[in-house]
Amino acid sequence: MSHDQNFKNLILDYPRQALEFFAAAETADIDWATARITPVRQEQVQERLGERFRELDTPLLVEWPDGKRAALLFVVEEETQPGRFSIHRLAHYCLDLAELLDTERVVPVVIFLRPGAHPYQLRLGGDRQPPYLHFHYLACDLYRLPAVQYVNSSNLVARLNLVNMAYAPEQRLEVYARAQDGLAGLESNWDRRLKYVDFIDGYARLSEAEWEQYRREYLATSDQREVIMGMLSYSRQEGLQQGLQQGLQQGLQQGEALLLRRVLTRRFGPLPAWVERRLTDAEPAQLERWCERVLDAPTLEAVLADG
Predict the structure, then answer these.
(1) What are phi and psi for residue 110, nearest 5 degrees?
(2) Rounded mean pLDDT, 254-277
(3) Looking at residue 234, what is its pLDDT?
(4) The pTM is what?
(5) Are 73 and 97 in contact (CB under 8 A)?
(6) Are 294 and 267 in contact (CB under 8 A)?
(7) Which of 129, 176, 212, 233 is the most buried (most CB within 10 A)?
(8) Contact 138, 25 (CB under 8 A)
């Protein structure tokens, strides 16, 4: 599971709800009826920042066409492991974007999915003067937020993330049920429903026993029962089909490797360890190329050559 990509998709699909939830301290007084949110084009940022460009960061530009307020740039980053978070990198990135877009109105936001220590501010200076550079950011520690405060939220991003919040073990199925109810009730687009039912399931990770208990005790009485059953049924069917396709592909690959191993043994005798390793680790395209050479190449090295 790519947590970075999951949250990038979530923020781009629901930018207003994402900013209201993840950056509540900065967005509480925004009149969204007069505001326009535009994702900053990756090509524009990548061209200017080069190697410092981070594809999975999500800069959102909030503008007011009527000119009532100056534009605000929100730089939203998801960090699964807090120990890997670099406040220096974030500060550098925000300064780069501020220069690129010629603005000083930049709001850095970091979403922490898992517990762990991380710095909340950066101070650069000497001994006598106040810090010459003081940088901090809005931190959303998802794992600390009490799920009970958001179970009835009309913010879809909050409802989808209930399963990532803090709750007692005995509340696990209730939290999952409220997340599914929120998705079914707040999102009318079928494709997005299917997309985010997988988001909820991926982070909830219910066991089969828990799933059956949810179905008996929660789904049966839900006002969104028909919608949720349709979403979950389709999602599980898609997952099964994908698993079958992957299994079939893996079986074909293993069969091709076995046939190639037999032909190589007949031509060149017992195979050395390095050949066995190459056959075991080979990608399907490599196996196909080697099969085309196996009858004509004069040596093992020639058969298994790269390219």
Answers:
(1) -125, 125
(2) 77
(3) 47
(4) 0.72
(5) yes
(6) yes
(7) 176
(8) yes
Start-to-end C-alpha separation, the chain: 31
Task: Write the pLDDT tens digit of every residue in 205-258.
Answer: 888 888 888 888 887 777 776 667 656 664 555 544 454 355 445 555 566 777
Reduced to 3 states (helix: H, G, I; strand: E, B; else coil), residue 146 is strand
pLDDT tops 80 at residue 78: yes
Are 261 and 255 within 8 A, CB to CB? no
In angstroms, rounded to a whole number, what is the distance separating the alpha carbons of residues 137 and 271? 59
Q: Is 148 exposed, middle or buried (0-12, 13-18, 19+ CB in 10 A)?
A: middle
Question: Per-residue DSSP letters for 14-82?
Answer: SHHHHHHHHTHHHHTT--TTS-EEEEPPHHHHHHHHGGG--TT-EEEEEE-TTSSS--EEEEEEEESSG
Neighbours of 167 (CB within 10 A): 17
Please give the distance of CA 220 from its chain centroid, rounded to a whole number.
31
Write out pLDDT tens, residues 2-21: 788 889 999 999 999 999 99
C-alpha dihedral sign at 96, 101, 104, 108: negative
Please tell me whether residue 135 adopts helix, strand or coil conformation: strand
The pLDDT mean for the chain works out to 83
